[in-house]
Amino acid sequence: MLNILQQYWWVIVSLLGALLVFLMFVQGGQSLLFGTVKSKEEKTLLVNALGHKWELTFTTLVTFGGAIFASFPLYYSTSFGGAYWLWMTILFLFVIQAVSYEFRSKAGNFLGAKTYETFLFLNGMFGTILIGVAVGTFFTGGAFIMNKSSITNTLQPTISYWTNNYHGLEAIAVPFNMLMGIVVYFAARTLGLLYIIMQIDFEPLAKKAKSQIKITGPAFVLAFVALLLSLFTMTGYHVNPENGFISAVRYKYLFNMTELIWPFIMLFTGVVLVIGGLANTLFGKGKGSFYITGAGVVLAVWSLLICAAFNNTAFFVSTVDIQNSLTLQNSSSSEFTLKVMAYASLMVPFVFAYIVYVWRAMTKVKMSNDDLLKPDTHKY
Amino acid sequence: MFLASLADLSRLQFALTAMYHWLFVPLTLGLGFIIAIMETFYVRSGNEFWKRTTKFWMNIFAINFAIGVATGIILEFQFGTNWSNYSWFVGDIFGAPLAIEGILAFFLESTFFAIMFFGWNKVSKNAHLISTWLVAIGTNLSALWILVANAWMQYPVGMAFNPDSARNEMVDFWAVLFSPVAINKFIHTVTNGYVLASIVVIGISAWYLLHKREEEFARKSIKTSAVFGLVSLLVLIWSGDGSSVQVAKKQPMKLAAMEGLYKGQTGTPIIVAGILNPGKSVKNIADNPIKYESEDAFIFKISIPQGLSLLVDRKTNTFVPGIEDILKGGYTYLDKDGVPKTAPPIEERMAKGKLAVEGLALYQKARLAGDEEGKGLAYTQLMDNFDHFGYGYIEKPTDVIPNVPLTFYAFHIMIMLGIYFLLFFIITLYMEKKAIISKHRWFLYLAIISIPLVYICSQAGWVVAEVGRQPWTIQDLLPVGAAVSGINPGAVRTTILLFFILFTALLIAELGIIFKVIKKGPGA
Question: What phi and psi, each to the nearest 5 degrees, are found at residue B46?
Fold first, then answer.
């Protein structure tokens, strides 16, 4: 039963991670604030269109953090406590985002509109890349030592610590992590452009978005293909379910896909949907492209994250001593806790239903400049 | 060097970020309901005045909400970044409320927030009203789960220690959720938010009256908030009384620090107001006992005889242990099952704690060696002494004493301001009923001054709760020194500085925006 619950919670956490990447279309849109979107009018429209959704992305990030803390506390403890600078940088980038929508256009905002726009741009640009880098460590690991028995050393009771002084920043220098960061960035930017095309009723901006997507969309697909090639040729780490012994296996993630099949089907479907959604925009009328591409991104990311831990795979490898690596078995919460949370997770479809209801209510009409001038409008 | 230890720095960072966060959250908790009540008036009456009033306070809510969200994300992830040992040791219990908070509460508030602010023209009046209520409920639900988690740290229940995984694991979710400490803490904290929001609304409204602007708006806002605030304050006082009973039972050292009680007695008086004698340092208990004994606890005090005994046990002759009694042990207390027991001295608890930690080490060793008999013996040693586990990390007995002056003054400031607010609400309602508020400028000034006072009161409450429980992250099980991450103190110093600069800049921005919004007024 514990085994099933561990897998169930990894699926849930992975789904939250995949939804987060999809919802980072908000960040992708923000990354257009300098360069692509220039006029004040366009910026205001973009910020307001994205501003109706940023809370959802932010909440998904927070829930992802809470869920991984509750279901795999050893990962939370080891990664966050060790890769301190990587996570702190990500957090700072999200703190500056959270106030920027509300404060940007308000009188008396102390730092000026330009600063808040810069905050949004930094969050959109580097928040996405660094989250991608952090996700990359699910495959490349980190320089940590973990020993639960250390709790009995009253002078030095820390059970996990990082063995270098970069505390996670070194992950940026790992090519695979950086590639993952670039993929997440392009995914967010592509979805951001599709959101603009779908949601903003302002021809000059829509024209720019359509022009931009001709470059960003294919760049996303190419970067993703490069990521898959890199992933399927890299070495992963197998956990012996009998004794927990961890050993290196070449092409481990490729084997995970071929042995389990269903993540591969998810990945394949995801890729088809992404390409289909983009093709629909590039060569067709583009109706529904945002949702089609978004669904593709969710499926693809979800399958990769599942692949990181399923089929007896260590999902957070210690590059110092692979026997210290984290697996679903050694890092999860107890069966009781996972069960309690599984009951709580039964509420997820209900939560999903009201999110869909609100989303539909808020996006059924495209946003225009006229909307922002209406008397009841709460304008960012 | 000042704050050289990693634990001190990590505590400072958590305190800094939590106190900033708590500047914004209580207003959100209370204002959400005040707005929902006002919008209900609007929907029921159709009077556009109430819509205008609702929208003005909603504007204040949105500005405050954004910065509350910004400062909140740090707190969640800080458990991992700065308290990684803690995250493993009790993550099995502590993480669950956090996850449930995300799934059940955060999505509720963030989803309906969109309709509340942007949906006036997109959904029906009733759908909008429901959304506003759901945001208010969502913010309070999220408070529930994080307060359940915090209460569990003050009074760990519903769990068992697993020596194989070297951590505590949840065995009874309902015991965690419905522990008396959790219930009291939730009610006390959210009603604190309601009182704070009411005072803020009254204070801002008073400013309009002082400037002879928006009289109808101001008076109706004052009336709504004063009723809401007074009812909330009565519940706040009731839950505060319940909290003091719980603290006396579960955290006697915290109670002793709150009252500056060094030596206990039967029929212990309660301090109404007082100035502690700085010469009476708890460090001298061990370092200079003659000086310690020669110093009085107070320079000045006003007390009510037998008041503390009456407060914590409803009896006038109950013995309430002081700091020295807790260090020496020997007094009678009731354990978790309500069975009377004699309290052991802290030195004995430290010795037993060391036995528990050693038992765990032996257990781990025997497990790896496949020595079943050794495992059994080690397990017995561990579990026989587990109630004292955290004391195994304590270096000297006086380390279990929190900062007495800080806890004492924070507690008494909180109580005095609480009494002041009770009088304030009564006077407000009386003057509003007689329609004389506008005529009394002194009252309008008093209402404005009350805004910073209610923030001081609210912050003081958390200082009592968190400083008073030191040195424990989890009462009796894990001291702060054993809970921190293995990071460089220099890194924490840098992030403290960065947080301080960033949050201060954002606070200035928030106040700047709010002042402008107020100046513009609801008619704008």
Answer: 75, 5
The count of CB pairs under 8 A between chains A and B is 294
ipTM given for this complex: 0.92
Least CB-CB distance to B106: which of A63, A111, A364? A63
Distances from the Cα of A116 to the Cα of A110, B53, B118, B163, B503, angstroms: 10, 28, 21, 50, 14
The predicted-structure confidence for A251-277, as pLDDT tens digits, reads as follows: 999 999 999 999 999 999 999 999 999
Domain boundary assignment for chain A = 2-373
Residues of A in contact with B361 (CB under 8 A): 149, 152
Task: Please give, rounded to a whole number of angstroms, the shortest distance from the CA of B103 to a CA of chain A.
Answer: 6
pTM, rounded to two decimals: 0.94
C-alpha–C-alpha distance, residues A297 and B307, integer Å: 65
Q: What pLDDT shows up at residue B524?
A: 63
Q: Report the percentage of chain A scoring pLDDT > 70.
A: 100
- For residue A245, the tally of other CB atoms under 10 A from its CB is 11
Least CA distance to B354: which residue of chain A? A154
B223-279 per-position pLDDT tens digit = 999 999 999 999 999 999 999 999 999 999 999 999 999 999 999 999 999 999 999
Question: Beta-carbon neighbour count of residue B483 at 10 Å?
Answer: 29
User: Best residue in A8, A69, A97, A130 to probe B by mutation, most B CBs within 10 Å?
Assistant: A69
Burial of A231 (0-12, 13-18, 19+ CB in 10 A): buried
Closest-CA residue of A relative to B171 is A336
Return the sign of the alpha-carbon dihedral for residues A196, A198, A204, A208. positive
CB of A141 within 8 Å of a chain B CB? The answer is: no
pLDDT at A210 over 50: yes
**Ranges of chain B with pLDDT below 70:** 1-3, 524
Q: Does residue A374 sit at the B interface (CB-CB below 8 Å)?
A: yes
| Angle subtended by helix axes A128-140 and A2-23, to nearest 10 | 150
